[in-house]
Amino acid sequence: MAEEIALVDSSTTENFIDQETIKKLKLSTKKLETGLQNIDGTFNKARQITHYLNLLVSHRTKKNSEHFYLTDLGSD
């Protein structure tokens, strides 16, 4: 089991995780049925988003399983 502490506020309505973090933590991903693009129809730096994974997110006593879409977040 891997644990990583993070604080992210990108004002997005979805959750994203960097592809390098996936490699570093050796997490497995699932393929989306259809790829995702940015809200304005453009592609992300890593091109179309094609994979996701579910992560357990905990805050104090609450725990939720959340979708995270795999992409290139650069140095963020």
Descriptive account of the structure:
With 76 residues, the protein is mainly β. It has 1 helix and 4 strands; from the N terminus they run βαβββ. It has one domain (16-71). A 4-stranded mixed sheet has the order 1-4-3-2. A hairpin with a 2-residue loop joins strand 3 (49-59) and strand 4 (62-71). 7% of the residues are buried.
Q: Tell me the major beta sheet.
A: 4 strands, mixed
- Give the DSSP E fraction (strand runs of 2 or more residues): 35-45%
What is the first-to-last residue Cα distance? 23 Å
The low-confidence runs, each spanning 5 or more residues with pLDDT under 50, are none
The overall strand count is 4
What number of domains?
Answer: 1
Shape: globular
* Lateral strand order in the biggest sheet: 1-4-3-2
Number of helical elements: 1
| Percentage of residues assigned to helices | under 10%
Structural class: mainly beta
Radius of gyration: 13 Å
Q: Write the H/E string, N to C.
A: EHEEE
